[in-house]
Design brief:
four-stranded antiparallel beta sheet, single chain, Alpha-Beta Plaits, 37% helix, 24% strand, alpha+beta, 165 residues, 2 domains
Amino acid sequence: MANFSFDTVSEYDKAEMNNVFDQTQREIENRYDFKGTPAEIEWLNSDKTGIKVTGNGQWQIDAILDIFRKKLATRGQSQKVLDTSKPVVESNLKATQEVPFKQGLDQEKAKKITALIRDNHPKIKSQIQGDAVRVTGASKDDLQAVMQLIKTQDFDFPINFNNFR
């Protein structure tokens, strides 16, 4: 009897994030209401693990983040990757906000996923392996049902699947 498996992970596509960043930057440069303002977006660090948004005030930062979210949606990426919990810092007539990207499943998030699978699909085995949850079953159909179940849940972090075997 063949065993099939896949990994449930929380990560983002770096190439797509690069595209979203470039498109957002282009739109900021071309928008009339941003002309002559300090509105800009830049990478948080050289590893591109987040963005730093600068604007006139909270309203402009919200507008730039809204543009970024729309670009994420058009490229098929989850908006839950943005961690907007850091406060806006205002100084020198500028406001800045650092928005890191969420990545990786911690123990608590992984336990939520395994409990969900255990409660709804008792035949399917799930185990936590570092920052991923390995899901194993005898039938590909069962595994696809588990994927659909996980996708329908409203977690506060992005969910992806890989290593489907």
